[in-house]
Task: structure prediction
Amino acid sequence: MSRIHEALKKAEQERAATQGVAPQPPAASAPAAEQAVLAGTVADAAFPLAAVVQTAGMPNLSSQFGLETLLARSAQLEWRPEPSTMLFMNGDDNARGTEEFRTLRSRLYHLREKMALKKLLVTSALPKEGKSFTSANLAQVLVRQHGRRVLLIDADLRGPRLHLMLGTTASPGLSDYLQGKNDEFSITQRGPVEGLFFIPSGESIDDPAELVGNGRLKLLLQRVEPLFDWIVIDSPPAVPVSDASVLAKACDGVLMVVRSNSTPFDAARKARQEFPEQMLLGVVLNGTHGDVTPYARYYYEAYQKKASTTKA
Ligand SMILES: Nc1ncnc2c1ncn2[C@@H]1O[C@H](COP(=O)(O)OP(=O)(O)OP(=O)(O)O)[C@@H](O)[C@H]1O
Ligand SMILES: [Mg+2]
Result:
């Protein structure tokens, strides 16, 4: 009996034990799972459980195995977050800006009632509009809800910054996975925040556009998706380079960051055109100034029409 077949059988028995139903033989789904693994690379085949999750359609069963592997193999590191940008890591739950991220979180949960939503791409038209700041703080606010697991990915292979914000190492990471050098567990880090996992950008490379478009990112997301409640992906700006629109194809939705009093209207419109209408979840207006929160304020506008007409 193959390793995958054994895993499926064990998972089915565990489900039967917890749900009080008779175990079903996994024969019908095992061949599909095996084919998927065989079609993968050597590195994929060494860690088949996430592929089993995908192809056998039993996320609740096999994710338990994947989770154990994730906890055992991801690197537990001592992050040293930048207090000025990591709003939820400086010991003050009411720090300026935190409330706006809670609002953003609740809007996302509203959207999730109407559509399948887990993998979020954060982008903007131009550089320095707050994509990384938004990604990092969004991941933190999502994970603050009890029992949630969130994966933050730095997919800005041109100007990675999330590792600096979190105060950790940049590699191994995404670029190493995309080149086939590492598997998904060995590029994943955990820090001091329970439930928050991080995949940094990885070794610096010369051809980011080629790498993000080589199909392995989609594979990575398929493999880790069952293990997380949310996956937040930071990206390069959408107007100057094509990476973000390529990355979006592997995601469920796109959050567009617009820097208040900075992003030119034409650039924002052009960035919007880079994504299919149904991918756009809304706009995060970053860096507004007001009496209540003079330092940072965010406004999130959901495209309700879109949400009500997309996937159930
Ligand atoms: N609302 C905010 N309040 C305070 N600082 C902010 C805010 N938004 C962004 N910043 C800071 O501005 C700088 C640029 O932000 P960030 O790195 O998030 O932009 P970016 O869009 O990811 O840039 P790039 O295109 O270079 O990746 C960072 O130092 C970040 O900490
Ligand atoms: Mg950035």
About this structure: Confidence is low (pLDDT under 50) at residues 1-12, 14-61, 291-312.
